[in-house]
Amino acid sequence: MKRTAACFVWLTLATAPAQQPPKPSEDPVLKQVADMSKRCLAESNQFREEGGKAGDPGDPARKWATLFWRIREEHPGTPAADRATRAAFSWWRHADQDEEVMARAEKLPADDPAWERVIYILKESARKRGAWARFTNKAESLLSVSKDKKLRAAVWKEVGSAYLSQDKPEQAKGAFEAILKEAPGSSEAEDAKQFIHEINHLNVGQPAPRFQAKTVDGAPISSQDFRGKVVLLSFWASW
Q1: How confident is the model over 20-37, as a mean pLDDT?
Q2: Does the domain made of 147-205 have the CATH classification 3.30.920?
Q3: pTM (2 decimals)?
């Protein structure tokens, strides 16, 4: 009887369901931001389908960007504020409000987590307006105070991209090399390696890299076959 009872107890314990920790309640403000994003996207798509253009006074993206910014101000320091801040900058940029993007970015604190996304948006607005000095000044300000490796890598990447847009490959290379030094193994570092390779080997005036391949008919082909000739290379891909 004792063995039977022991066996019964063991089986009962073994088959008892494990207790699952309670799920954290959903942040209502985060949900509000997500719902706002869906409504903003739907209104913006409808606006453009009806012939509206970015920058028009009636562009709903302008209205929604302001509403997202209000969420940021009402819930500072929260995940919802971070997401709302990113959304506000994205939609201002979408509405061609580049001056608004740059003015807000210049006042955004250096420790704001939204910078990882905002630095790219700021660079694109600077590109649109040809305001590279304003972008560079802000980027340098961030790098002078931020210790966050992920943010620093994101900033260096956009600084390098900005220099490439200005046809300054050596300055761009320096920015990408900073990523390799400060954030090795990161996704930004992998991108930096590709940019450095292009700067070193694929710039205008440099010899084309040697290659060997096969034609659509299966015949071998080599870049050496065209040495001294004018060649047009057409790159394409299907996804």
Answers
A1: 79
A2: no
A3: 0.79
